[in-house]
Amino acid sequence: MKVDGACHCGFITYEAEVDPDQVYACHCTDCQAFSGGAFRWAVSIPEENLRILSGEPKAYVKRSDSGLENHQMFCPTCASPIYSKSLAGSPQRVNLRLGTARQRAELSPRIELWRCSAQDWVTVEGADQRLERQ
Questions:
Q1: pLDDT at res. 90
Q2: What letters, b where the CB count within 10 A reaches 16 and e where it falls short, cover 68-104?
Q3: Maximum CA pair distance of the chain?
Q4: Could you read off the pLDDT tens digit of each residue along the chain, which spans 134 residues?
Q5: Is the link from the previous residue into 91 a cis peptide, with omega within 30 of 0?
Q6: Residue ranges per domain, the chain?
Q7: Among 4, 13, 29, 112, which one is least packed by beta carbons within 10 Å?
Q8: Which residues contact 41 (CB under 8 A, 6 or more apart)?
Q9: At a CB cut-off of 8 Å and minimum separation 6, what does 101 contact?
Q10: Helices (H), the chain
Q11: pTM beyond cutoff 0.70
């Protein structure tokens, strides 16, 4: 499915090809902190499936418990999260943040990750897979 989107201020615009069946909600504590909410909503795609059309995202580098670096890419003006990527692994994948996608109403989470960290009051309707961890 082709999607397009923009950060809140419109500085960053993009288009991407995503698989709607791979949309996930992650309840890990990092995603809660980064999103400022109870979970983060995203889809993992090959890096070549994302095309930044305008603007240059800024990176915040988070080092995981395993020591790997994960780059959280966001708008330098309005701070809207756009995607994240790990520098490990090949081929490269990115996690596109779906709150910025114009088609977000069509992209409900099919997978829940890190249910062990989920807030008790959160239920994601329609998820086919619920994993306690990742």
A1: 63
A2: eebbbbbbeeeebbbbbbeeeeeeebbbbbbbbbeee
A3: 39
A4: 999 999 999 999 999 999 999 999 999 888 889 888 999 999 999 999 999 999 999 999 988 777 788 899 999 999 999 999 987 766 689 999 999 999 999 999 999 999 999 999 998 988 888 878 87
A5: yes
A6: 2-130
A7: 29
A8: 23, 24, 25, 35, 97, 98, 99, 107, 109
A9: 3, 4, 5, 16, 107
A10: 29-35
A11: yes
pLDDT of residue 16: 98
Query: How far is residue 128's CA from residue 124's CA, in Å, rounded to a whole number?
Result: 10
- Residue length of the chain: 134
Q: What fold characterizes domain 2-130?
A: 2.170.150
Amino acid at 67: G
Cα(57)–Cα(23) distance, integer angstroms: 22
Indicate left, alpha or beta for 2 from its phi (over 0: left) and psi (-120 to 50: alpha). Answer: beta
The amino acid at residue 72 is Q
